[in-house]
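Hi support team,

I'm filing this because I wasn't sure whether my run with iron/sulfur cluster finished correctly. The job status page said complete, but I'd like someone to confirm that the output block is well-formed before I use it downstream. Pasting the exact inputs I used:
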Amino acid sequence: MDPIKTLRSRTVVLPVSDVDTDQIIPARFLTTTTRSGLGANLFADWRYGSDGTPKPDFVLNRPEAKGCAILVAGNNFGCGSSREHAPWALTEYGFRAVVSTQIADIFRNNSLKNGLVPVIVDQGTHGWLMEHPGTEVTIDLESTSLKLPTGESVRFPLEPFARFCLMNGVDELGFLLGREKEIGAYEQRQGAGYCV
Amino acid sequence: MASSPQTLFEKVWHRHEVVAETPATPAVLYIDLHLIHEVTSPQAFTVLRERGLKLRRPELTFATMDHSTPTRTEQVFGGAPITIEAAARQVRELEVNCAAFGVELLGLRHARRGIVHIIGPELGLTQPGRTVVCGDSHTSTHGALGALAFGIGTTEVGHVLATQCLLQRKPRTLAINVSGKLAGGVTAKDLILAIIGKIGVAGGTGHVIEYRGETIRSLGLDERMTVCNMSIEAGARAGMIAPDETTYAYLAGRPRAPQGAAWDEALEGWRQLPTDVGARFDREVDIDAASLEPMVTYGTNPGMVIPISGSIPQRPGDAAYAKSLAYMGFEPGRPIAEQPVNVVFVGSCTNGRLSDLRDAASLLRGRKVARGVQMLVVPGSQEVKREAEAEGLHTVFLEAGAEWRESGCSMCLGMNGDLVPKGQYAVSTSNRNFEGRQGVGARTLLASPLTAAASAVRGRLTDPRELM
Ligand code: SF4
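And here is everything the job wrote out:
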């Protein structure tokens, strides 16, 4: 995973609350056995008509959405299933961060493992962002803050280890494999673990 | 000095800490049971191959196929091809991966195959005090036996395959205290829908729920699983219920439960697990079960739920709400009962167990599914199917005009082609009424198996107590 220190981009605003993972990537696309190819089906049922043509009024289909790496969504983003296909679809499409007032636990975990920064902001900041689609913001991981064009800077919570991994491109599996000694010792203490 | 009182969750958590958390690093948490299925595991095995890794504890890993598998008997047993080619490929890939990495697999034709959250408890793999994970958010189901069980993503599936561990921050705790007796016709499904309605779809975010109180104690294991199953629908990754005599009676004699002296030893340990008197939760919520009616959802998330005698709430000026109602084809102020229904689905890891099928059959016996309604009954596992058939429940369903299928997730998420047609209304015993969950444009009303069966008979959303 490439290290991320700052992200600067215009925003796309999706004014829907409780966006669930079935909207982000519908189940019929989960039959894939690889990680790639999901970006084209991101938000498929909102983005395309039944004949497969893009719906012109959906935010991602508007010309100004092109190249935007930051998605601002309504309250409580990412609820529902544990499918990592959701952040895979978002990142392959080109998003690097999602901003909301609340982000569901499993989706947040999955995002962090895929270089998609979950940014949780207060209602006031969120409201401003919702009203200013296309605004250019900066997400700075060093200071864990979101900088608005107004000059205002808002802190957001980010678990310190996840932040460290994002900023240094550290992969958690490598970290866990490095705990071999402790894991072995735990297994010794527990005996054989459970017997199947 | 006696240690301070602990909750059930804290006891299980501390026993599995390989390395405790620090401000800079999460805890390394040991996993006792890892369940995998065909949809969220292939990419994890790819990572193992790329990095030349093996499974640390293949004997603690257990695989089945459920999400994209067919439910038509001829496709499961008769050699007819799986219609969806990509689903067939996922099934084959799981077989190859399990063989290559030494994982026990309950394959498509195995007599004990079923939905992963049904078979874990059913086989006795899920036990009190264990940590259980699976690449599926409804892993919370297993908490009904006093396990700490939660869903993980595919990257984490890879972590557990390779190290048997996960990096985790300790969640907060939420006690949901339920008192009062459920009225006749009101089930565990109605209870959990009411809980989600009360705390909201994000009400449990960051928390592990412990369901407590006399009402919970009086529930059987099937019903407890229904409650814990939908914890994720309130945003909580895990829901737990302290083990008690009901739990031990359920587990005794199950194929993978401890036997003989090992059972006695395990039992001793399990009895230490319930929350100590005086232990503190970060939050507590009280629910009065006695006042509940059958519940039904009317919108596009499980928190949009009302009693079956209720009307669609008014929320003027809320655009997201209006969008949700427009999808459902509902207007505010209208009573929900008597809504015409096209499809009825009884099944899923929420309500696909024997007691659920008994509930549905009790209202269908001697009655017919209304003309024009398609009713699908999909047992949660092959074992549930056999048990139901031994009681003759399948005859009740078939004589009523319902379809009786092989086990799997089926219409809960429609990956295998069991779909609700566009614009149609489905009363479903599953757990998610998201837009398009059961098919593009499908309109889902979540309810109990009793409500589903009553609605199938009338062809309209019906309070089951009218038929009891
Ligand atoms: S039955 Fe539905 S909720 Fe349960 S595991 Fe299958 S798809 Fe997921």
